[in-house]
Task: inverse folding
């Protein structure tokens, strides 16, 4: 059974198939709102060991929009609090008769571990700072809907690259589809190693801003930083927050994206988050579309949606 474990392991053709399928499913469901019955009789289990609003709810809705049942598991309130291990928990849920385990965990590689331990399909809904493939896909789908193509676009990922699974999913996915990717942020949050891997590294948003087609503004992940963060939130906002003044120096048709949750006033100001260039809520809707595609294609379906 196929899994969806990370963006780094997908080929360009596999990414295109996921994006094409997501777009078709979005249209078939009237913008992700109506039910279809492609997955009737199947069951999707959400195993979340970290908090989530967007990913968890959109996986649930994606499964239910396609006719599948869902099992909702949260580590708090479960028998994990009595000492049950992650793998035993996942095997227990699988034994209830599920076709997918969608997992989010703070430890990188946990979906890969489950892939070896379980017989059902495993989908990574975020493993620590490592990867978040459906987030990368929904970001790319949103860009495609606005620009028609990703090839040749200049896309900057701005902020806490060091701790961001969204950054990694976008870096691998966008570069495979031919975008020029810039990783931009303070030196404490952007490793110089990215330039060794062929990506542009920038520390000044103001310098790169005029040539960017898309900005994806990442949250500082305080929960993954043990020491007091540097720069401070105040310093970070002064140097990297997308605000009204910076919008004046951006391209007229720039797309402003954020994976969410957003911290208003830190990486983005309210007038930009809610302004005409922002596609943040379109990203949320597209999350249902790409998660329907992920479920469909890992169920072993053909990407052309013939059954
Ligand atoms: N972007 C994202 O993963 O959001 P949630 O943490 O709310 O799922």
Result:
């Amino acid at each position: 059974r196929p899994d969806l474990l990370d963006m780094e392991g997908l080929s360009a053709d596999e990414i295109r198939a996921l994006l094409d399928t997501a777009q078709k499913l979005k249209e078939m469901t009237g913008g992700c709102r109506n039910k279809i019955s492609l997955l009737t009789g199947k069951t999707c289990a959400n195993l979340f060991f970290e908090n989530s609003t967007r990913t968890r709810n959109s996986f649930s809705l994606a499964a239910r929009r396609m006719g599948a049942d869902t099992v909702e598991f949260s580590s708090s309130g479960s028998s994990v609090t009595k000492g049950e291990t992650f793998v035993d928990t996942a095997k227990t849920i699988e034994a209830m008769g599920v076709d997918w385990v969608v997992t989010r965990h703070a430890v990188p590689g946990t979906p890969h571990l489950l892939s070896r331990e379980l017989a059902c399909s495993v989908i990574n809904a975020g493993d620590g700072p490592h990867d978040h493939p459906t987030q990368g896909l929904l970001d790319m789908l949103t860009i495609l809907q606005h620009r028609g193509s990703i090839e040749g676009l200049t896309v900057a990922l701005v902020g806490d690259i060091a701790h961001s699974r969204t950054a990694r999913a976008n870096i691998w996915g966008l570069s495979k589809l031919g975008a020029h990717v810039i990783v931009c942020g303070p030196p404490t949050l952007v490793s110089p190693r990215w330039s060794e891997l062929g990506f542009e590294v920038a520390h000044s948003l103001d310098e790169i801003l005029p040539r960017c087609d898309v900005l994806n503004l990442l949250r500082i992940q305080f929960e993954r930083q043990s020491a007091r963060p540097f720069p401070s939130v105040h310093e970070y906002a002064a140097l990297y927050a997308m605000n009204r003044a910076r919008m004046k120096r951006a391209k007229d048709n720039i797309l402003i994206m954020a994976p969410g949750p957003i911290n208003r006033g830190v990486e983005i100001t309210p007038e930009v988050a809610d302004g005409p260039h922002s596609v943040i809520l379109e990203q949320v809707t597209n999350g249902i579309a790409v998660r329907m595609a992920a479920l469909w294609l890992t169920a072993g379906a053909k990407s052309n949606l013939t059954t």
